[in-house]
Amino acid sequence: MERIERHASFGGRQEVWKHVSRTLGCEMRVGVYLPAAALRGQPCPVLYWLSGLTCTEQNFITKAGAQAHAARHGLIVVAPDTSPRGATVADDPAYDLGQGAGFYLNATRAPWVPHYRMEDYVVDELPALVEQHFPALPRRGILGHSMGGHGALTLALRHPGRYASVSAFSPIVAPAQVPWGQKAFTAYLGDDRAAWAEHDTVTLIAQPRDERLPLLVDQGDADEFLASQLRPELLRAACESAGHPLTLRLQPGYDHSYYFVASFLADHFAHHAGALAAGVDEPGA
Amino acid sequence: MERIERHASFGGRQEVWKHVSRTLGCEMRVGVYLPAAALRGQPCPVLYWLSGLTCTEQNFITKAGAQAHAARHGLIVVAPDTSPRGATVADDPAYDLGQGAGFYLNATRAPWVPHYRMEDYVVDELPALVEQHFPALPRRGILGHSMGGHGALTLALRHPGRYASVSAFSPIVAPAQVPWGQKAFTAYLGDDRAAWAEHDTVTLIAQPRDERLPLLVDQGDADEFLASQLRPELLRAACESAGHPLTLRLQPGYDHSYYFVASFLADHFAHHAGALAAGVDEPGA
Q: What is the per-residue pLDDT for B278?
């Protein structure tokens, strides 16, 4: 890993690293916030943030105001890019397919094989790198926005025991039922609806499962994608039906932007910090 | 004025407006944050933020995390662009002259006359517009970053009674003595050193004056422009010599970025809120 940015921030440090990913077969960039405790070498829990369509590792670290919360709770925050990148990586001219739109799954169809394996990258390779290079505890939370909210929810549901906490802003909760997800799933997974179901939050929630992590989900009710792409009512119904603990907050007047994310991010950090600190001897101060 | 962006944010609203400026002879954009109290129609004090070289009205409103503080203190925050703009406005290929580099003064030399009149715009036209279009009290604070820190300090010093509070991040405190300022002053004001002195904070501080607003200045000690362009030691010496109240904080490890601004912005809002609320019947909660 090679550090390419380094900025003092709220007593800690916001960094950006690049590395060649074995999983994705390309160079990747990732934002890493290290709170003061981590800079002193004290192991800290790690919160993984997954961004939405069109984003890189930069959007969250520059726009969300996350560093203040990470500093307060003593959390490392890792913000990867949203897809494999580079001239040798398949792409599509549309904003919602290809580079910038990896959908946090492993593609099985050409031309997206072999690079598009964001699930393996986020769940396995990236945490291994983080826990090797930084004073990171193997205690992980995951959250994200929009496509990244879909990523956070599906990855936590698909990998029980891997994350201690999960939350989302404006997540695509039923990709198999909405245009963004149907387009991406058709491209990356083909027409096999059983494969789609494995990456669809409302379907995963309905399955029998031993672990049911409480979900915190914020959604703006003035979000331009609410009715067409996000449909939080499907998540509410799925959780009620399955007995899955859900706090779903419809925030009046809020849209799909980082202004919305920033407004409620403190609550999400508190949600994760509570779960992540429970297994730590000395919680971040 | 025409609203071109509108985002719910921390219980208030971040907006962007455009308007044709009489002073500048071009269309201008300006960020306006309205706290919840202002949305209810309650008059609020106004904080003016001036950005640095290359910035537009977007940098501060997307990167500084200011909305949380504005909401907490019940302040309207106005963030204008850094120069006149447009195809009919003189420009220069360098990042530190022309569009994006107005230096918050009224130019007297071609080709910068007649558009480059950022002092009149910020001090007169913009507050008049704000106080007409929003529930804004005629109680103003001013702050900024780098070239905008220079703007905040010089405009407050040049217009006693106009601002109740002033502060700066990484300001250019002695433009007449450093390359950025010498280049801009030569272009906009010609070779007349007496004209330069009127826009040089350390010179203005040395003049006899009835009003001496306390200055809060934060400066990162890892700022890449510290020794060449910023030279806070000249401000400290000028304030000591003149008896001007100054809180100058050298922040260890911090650079020139918005990560630095965001880290200490809460203190600046508290500084301004204290002064601005003093004349208000019901301080923002």
A: 60
What is the 3 state secondary structure string of chain A? CEEEEEEEECCEEEEEEEEEECCCCEEEEEEEEECHHHHCCCCEEEEEEECCCCCCCHHHHHHCCHHHHHHHHCCEEEEECCCCCCCCCCCCCCCCCECCECCCCECCCCCCCCCCEHHHHHHHHHHHHHHHHCCEEEEEEEEEECHHHHHHHHHHHHCCCCCCEEEEECCCCCHHHCHHHHHHHHHHHCCCHHHHHCCCHHHHHHCCCCCCCCEEEEEECCCCCHHHHHCHHHHHHHHHHHCCCEEEEEECCCCCCHHHHHHHHHHHHHHHHHHHHCCCCCCCC
The amino acid sitting at B23 is T
CA-nearest of B171, B204, B165 to B48 is B165
- Say if the Cβ atoms of B251 and A8 lie within 8 Å: yes
What is the number of H-type helices and E-type strands within chain B?
A: 11, 9
Q: What gap in Å lies between CA B198 and CA B22, rounded to an integer? A: 24
Q: Confidence band (pLDDT; 50, 70, 90) for A277?
A: confident
Residue B74 sits at φ, ψ, to 5 deg, of 65, 40
How many residue contacts between A and B have a Cβ separation below 8 Å? Answer: 67
**Tens digit of pLDDT for each residue in B202-241?**
999 999 999 999 999 999 999 999 999 999 999 999 999 9
User: pTM (2 decimals)?
Assistant: 0.96
| ipTM computed for the complex | 0.95
Interface of A with B in 211-230 (CB under 8 A): 220, 222
